[in-house]
Amino acid sequence: MPNNAAYSSKYETLLAVGQLGGWEYNVLTQELWCNSYYFEMLGRKEYATADWAKYPIKEIWEDWLHPEDLAKAKEYFADYILNPVQEYAQQFRMLHANGDWVIILSRALAMRNEVGELTGMIIGTHLDISDTSRLSENFIITQKEFEKSKKQIIKDNAFLKAILNSPKDLFVLAIDKHYQFLGFSDSYIPFAKNVLLKDVQVGMNVFDVLPESMHAVAKANYDRALAGENFIITNNFIAPSGKRLYYENKYSPIIDQHGKILGLTLFSNDITAIKIQEEEMRIVDLRYAALFDGAEDAILIADATTGHLVDVNDRASELFGYSKYELVGMHQTQLHPPNDLAKITSLFQQFSSSKTNGHQFVDTNIIDHKGKIKPVRITAGAPFRAGKYLFLAAYFRDLSTEKAAIEKALTIQEMLSKAEGIAHVGSFEVMLPDGHAIWSDEMFRILDLSPHETLAHKDRFTESVIPEDQEIYHKWMGKVSTIEGESSPIQVQIQTRKGSIKHVIINGVGYKDLQGQIYKFIGVVKDITTRVSTMESLKIQNQKLREIAWAQSHLVRGPLSDILGITKIIKEKLVDEEEKETLITQLHDAADKLDQVVKDVVNNAGSFDESLQ
């Protein structure tokens, strides 16, 4: 501030008279000074420690700015500091002590010395323009009310509406008692030329311009007007172009000061677009009725304020078991079981107060006319206004079948999981090429892993394949990753986390995306460790059987043949008594050999049984 007292006095007087809050900001030191009225206009006199005291800019400006204005106001001020070539001026809202938001016009100028250099000081003022803004808003509101009234007047008077809003579609004709043109508006000239394909002039007979198909109707209307009648009638005709046109025509007699009828005036308004629009609206209404009554879900429309139903579709009647007549007028809480009323009341308030364009949904229960509770999903959008009333539309989808299907699917899934466990078959789904996978419980059990501790992935299985089988496994995986459909199975050995070596067979089916790339592989892994072990035992069994067969065909047959031969000789008395003694000794030796062979067979059979066990 200058030391000159007179200058300072004038400076303060100007601020006081203008009811301006003064402020000075030093760009170099980032210091802010404010006069007392800066705070008075915000109802915060207690903040004014002294006139033109120094304050933190954040506490007395940024913290009082409206949240929606804060970023913009700070950015604008920062830009001015960097480029102070023009006068600084912006509007923002600041918080008054009474809780109101005051609209402030902030203006400032960067100070320069006598040679035009910036001094780093910015001097500015705050002006409360809230009242001015309200006047402007009131003016805008008044203007809108005027426009609204004007539109209502236009709506009530179709003829005036045509003049104000579509003068190109309105033309005026003056016709004498001989059906000749006394005059016409400029808009009739292009109409006659483009639609009727005629060039018109004053004095021409009107029937030389109109299509012959219109002569009878037009003459009847002209004669009514020439008889003194005022009336409005809608006519339509097919123009030479083949298009049907609709016109609202107002006929009035031309009467002189003596009451004599000199001719007639015709105000003709093209309402073809309106008729087309009416037809489109009729089609829209039909579509609405078709969508509303033909919707797959039950649709209920309720008064958003009272909660009473105002309209329902046929599906709603089917879902709740009430007729439309019974449902309309019911309160929405009557459709839900007592245990859900608190939740439903809260949700209805939430739906009816929603201002977003999106949809909200909730799963809950309803109760039908027989007292049966059904699960439903309610979907509702933002309330919509029709006239002065606010309505809420909601879709009710019966989830009974869906929930039953889910429960059935869960049961089937549980049964499938048990079946996989019994068969030692794990299933998997792998997304290619990233390898993220979904494993069944049995898949985790085969690998001795926990689904709660391990993330399913293609690489996790690959790591379990023993080194000796890695090459054939990678070749197989590379092949199935490029072929659509079922692959050929492969048998490998894996080592689980617990160190167990298992034999498994892998097979599956590849699926292509729209670009023809294999993106998914679904398959099964069967644990055949027990079967492989059984096959090894069978090999041992076969070896033992071969040994027994050899013993039977060689070792047993020799002594047995000796016994059969000796007994035959003795039986047939082919030798004397002395030779008979020798044969008996030989018979005993052959029996000993046969006994030893039998013992060996029995011992081998015992080891075979052990191998089976």
Task: Give a topology summary.
Blueprint (H helix, E strand, L loop, with lengths): L4 H13 L3 E6 L4 E4 L1 H5 L12 E3 L1 H4 L6 H16 L5 E8 L5 E12 L5 E11 L1 H27 L1 H8 L4 E7 L4 E4 L3 H7 L20 H12 L4 E8 L5 E12 L5 E10 L1 H23 L3 E6 L5 E4 L1 H7 L3 H4 L13 H12 L7 E8 L5 E8 L3 E3 L2 E10 L1 H24 L1 E7 L5 E3 L1 H6 L11 H7 L2 H14 L4 E2 L3 E6 L5 E12 L5 E10 L1 H43 L5 H36 L1
Antiparallel strand pairs: 1-2, 1-6, 2-3, 4-5, 5-6, 7-8, 7-11, 9-10, 10-11, 12-13, 12-17, 14-15, 15-17, 16-17, 18-19, 18-23, 20-22, 21-22, 22-23
Task: Please give a structural write-up.
This protein has 613 residues and is α+β, with helices and mostly antiparallel strands. Helix content is 44%, strand content 27%. The chain has 18 helices and 23 strands. The strands form four sheets. Strands 3-2-1-6-5-4 form a six-stranded antiparallel beta sheet, sandwiched between helices. Strands 12, 13, 14, 15, 16 and 17 form a six-stranded antiparallel beta sheet that branches. Strands 18, 19, 20, 21, 22 and 23 form a six-stranded antiparallel beta sheet that branches. It is elongated.
